[in-house]
Amino acid sequence: MKTLDMQRLQASFTSQDQAEEAIRKLTALRGNRFRMAREGAGADFGSGVVDANAQMNAMANSLLYGASEPELGDELGRSAVLESEAAFSLSADVPASAIEQARQVVAQAGGTVV
């Protein structure tokens, strides 16, 4: 599929699990170039923002290649406290012909298209 046939989709989620669910379903729609990042980490999060984003992107890629969720959670060191405070953003390229389905996937996973 040509790059011109793809559209950028951006969404936000209240939890990492919701974003992961959307990634799995968007993959079925032939989405690609997934990028997930933690938002609103706060000023005291410091330089760890870059590392957290790199871990999120690695996690998104790992989901595409079959890593289990517990392994991914352990890698990220996530906790219920961190998840409740942070929002997650997700961007992906999806085929233009499937953009409406992709928006429904985001909504069904508990996210909001930005």
UniProtKB/TrEMBL annotation:
Q: What is this protein called?
A: Uncharacterized protein
**Source organism of this protein record:** Cohnella nanjingensis
Q: Write the lineage as a comma-separated list.
A: Bacteria, Bacillati, Bacillota, Bacilli, Bacillales
Where on the tree of life does the source sit, at the highest rank?
A: Bacteria
